[in-house]
Amino acid sequence: MSAPCQLYCGGNGLRNNGINEPFCFRIDYNTKEVSLVPASAAEQIDRESGLEVYGIVGLLSVASYSFLIPITQRQQVAQIQGKPIYTITNIAVIPTSSQTDASHAISQAKEHTTQGDVDHDDTASEGTVSDAETEDGETDINSVPASPVREAFHSRDRSVNNIAEDVLGKKVRFGRFAANWLSRKTMGLPGLGTVGQDEPEKVSENTKSAGTDDMSAVPDLKLSTTPTPNEIDPSPGSPKELPDSNPMVEFLPKLLRYTRLLFTSHNFFFAYDYDLTRHVGSQDPSWKDYLPLHKAVDELYFWNKHLMAPFIEVDAHHFVLPLMQGFVGQREFTVAITPPQPQETKPPSEERAEGLILGDKEEAQSVGVDAQKQNFLLTLISRRSVKRPGLRYLRRGVDDDGNTANSVETEQILSVPDWNSSRKIYSYLQVRGSIPLYFSQSPYAFKPVPVLHHSTATNQFAFERHFRNFSRRYGKIQAVSLIDKQAGELKLGEQYEKYAEAMNQAGGIEGVPLGLEWFDFHNECRGMKFENVSRLVDRLSTTLSEYGDTVVQDNIVVQSQSGIVRTNCMDCLDRTGVAQCAFGQWALERELKQEGIDICLSGDSSTQWFNTLWADNGDAISKQYSSTAALKGDYTRTRKRDYRGALNDFGLTLSRYYNNIVNDYFSQACIDYLLGNVSTHVFQEFAAEMKTADPGISVQKLRQNAIDTSCRIVISDQSEEFLGGWTLLTPRQPNTLRTLPFEEAVLLLTDAALYSCRFDWNTDKVLSFERIDLRSISRINHGTYITSTLTDAQTDERSNVGLVIEYREGDANNALRVNTRSLQSNVDAETLNTNARTSDEGTMYSWFRGLSRPTPHFIAFKALPLSNSAMQPRSVGTATTVTELDWVQTICEEIERAMSAGEARVADSDGGPSRTRVVQAADIISIDDAKKRTGFLEHLVYDIKKMVWA
């Protein structure tokens, strides 16, 4: 009989647990039971076989596999109002399907933790500060906090609204919770077993407080842990031999490695009893009396909410530890105060003490005997939004809900080190975010030119939606754009101004105009004179003073910040970091002045810690968005810029370029999946294209807009009745079945003709269209349409279907029209086949095909997937799911019905017979034919791409 697997949660591993000692989850695979027991119960626990953890990131499920992700190492980086703030430094990935795999994962995690212990001991003698000690005197395994703050220890309040009430007092049977947490047969996936279906027992009110301290009263959790074949090894290596080539399983090892890399990047922060997602002015100290932490936090910054969904769904609220991605840094500094000299004649009310910041460690030396010292604490918190998350060139601009890429709220807090509530606490907020327009940039260029997308109305709607959402959250808004007023960035900046002016002319935001300051950073600071950013601060000084900051005293908000500065450049990284540091300096000087201290932070070597703190913040945000540290970091740190900094920036630019074209595609898919924005279908998309769709952009909405636009432009005869429109894939070259790559086109049907439209999806323009009179159609064929055999999804005969419309080319009622830059009298086939992307303005002209080629021509269409990683399959009613084949058959029947109606009208008038049926079912390209068409070179190119990208 094997020993049970155990996970220990330390005494402060869960919020308000009402328990003064560590406890553990004990997983016994022999008895199929899980129990919660105190760690001190030596007779029940073999502590050597367990793993102590500090919280749970969540449960990651892919296909039929699930993995528990506990936090095995942490590091304290700050303390706010006596509450410690931690960053995750290590996690474990534990499979929940078998004891063998779980034990192996726990053993590996323990070895890594032990190594961390050794590393920590090696550095302890170098003057570092250890993590907070546990209540039984043991020291947690972690390294030094990033900032030299004083360690703060606090006791946990016992509360009836805690885990003792939920788990012990209520005697809850966690059958369903155990199934969701510890069994691979969970997560509501098709074909999974029904494990642990016991309903929680109803408890009367008089039992709520019972058993609060009696750990032995915890009921066992029943679950099924029957091992299954081909189980996953949770280690950073690869899974064991997998059962099939399903992309969801094929990419699982890479997903697990990225998950580990992401959550151990020192970019995720948490606190057990402080709401890290809200700024000081919006804290509600009473939340812990009636709410679990995950219900109190701001969901905009709750990064592991999707991974915690299984716990939330079964009301296991106290296991839910919200994580915030971003940055937390803290510095304690000393100001030497020199009283005013006697010869000054200022009235007492105007007297100010002159200050000198001595830094976070320096002593007040060489200061006059009359000087006094005053200590302050500066805390910097950046909160990265979960809306439109992702990596540099893959997430740009705005989405349909008004969310922008790289949206980060940064809070600068000034307080005294002991957070004395009688002293004022100052909080100053700033935000950064991409320009709220639809645009993109190619990752394959060093200086890519931004390309604007979609119509003016679509952009205006998203633009206004973004700023209205911002206004509800922050009040007045002063936008600051730091992009260039020349070259590639000029057009985007002009559009930003255009939409802001249009919004203000329409009444602004609830009658308040949107402020926009365009500061050409590179021109104003040319010659690496980044100190010229002070010009921007001077221009906005009146607005900054009007908005002010938030002041809290005696736990009461005595002043609220009434507006916010929203800064952007192209990436919202490097130039934005320099500008935000300048705004933060302005705020700190202003706040110290309210404390009676006049001081200028710029150009003072003693304020190096301030620059370093902001540079660390910039590097963290940059690594999360571009995978490298921020550019111009040398200036942010030292207020100096030289050739060495420029060379370092060049190296970082090269690293960014490599990540943009290689690493970021799969990383983006992982981020979207971990946040719950996409389904497992995202891995099928990646396998086929080595990239994925943007879940923030509604594909259905774009396609419907393309149909509406095409219908409005190409159907010129008012007598034609529009019957339907669809978007499908079509070969790039006409009269072919397989010209790669395929293009997405619009097919329109009227009672007189078919229109095949080539559409520019970036500018919402029709590039060209071909009109096919219904009377010229001789046959319509639908069936299997395999265009590639590189992946399993591409060879699925159920979803890879299409139709071919055969028609007589020489009909006088057929026409081809092209949108070009200038008027042409003739268009040859070569011009048509190039299908060049043209300008916004053009002249429409037609070219009627002659009668010299009697052979029939055809046009082929392939069905688009009816579902992708970000959308649900189309359905009829509530039960029947529409397949791609059903959809194609419907299109064919609609065309045939329109043809029959027209012929019936002709037959009635002429008295002739109607035509026989034209729709036939037959393979267009069978799987055998596709294998013959897919050559060795195509396989080689795909294998190389897969080796590089995946």
TrEMBL record:
<feature type="domain" description="SAC">
    <location>
        <begin position="259"/>
        <end position="627"/>
    </location>
</feature>
<feature type="compositionally biased region" description="Basic and acidic residues">
    <location>
        <begin position="109"/>
        <end position="123"/>
    </location>
</feature>
<dbReference type="InterPro" id="IPR022158">
    <property type="entry name" value="Inositol_phosphatase"/>
</dbReference>
<dbReference type="GO" id="GO:0046856">
    <property type="term" value="P:phosphatidylinositol dephosphorylation"/>
</dbReference>
<feature type="region of interest" description="Disordered">
    <location>
        <begin position="102"/>
        <end position="153"/>
    </location>
</feature>
<dbReference type="GO" id="GO:0005783">
    <property type="term" value="C:endoplasmic reticulum"/>
</dbReference>
<dbReference type="Pfam" id="PF02383">
    <property type="entry name" value="Syja_N"/>
</dbReference>
<dbReference type="Pfam" id="PF12456">
    <property type="entry name" value="hSac2"/>
</dbReference>
<dbReference type="GO" id="GO:0043812">
    <property type="term" value="F:phosphatidylinositol-4-phosphate phosphatase activity"/>
</dbReference>
<protein>
    <recommendedName>
        <fullName>SacI domain protein</fullName>
    </recommendedName>
</protein>
<feature type="domain" description="HSac2">
    <location>
        <begin position="697"/>
        <end position="852"/>
    </location>
</feature>
<dbReference type="InterPro" id="IPR002013">
    <property type="entry name" value="SAC_dom"/>
</dbReference>
<feature type="region of interest" description="Disordered">
    <location>
        <begin position="192"/>
        <end position="245"/>
    </location>
</feature>
<dbReference type="InterPro" id="IPR034753">
    <property type="entry name" value="hSac2"/>
</dbReference>
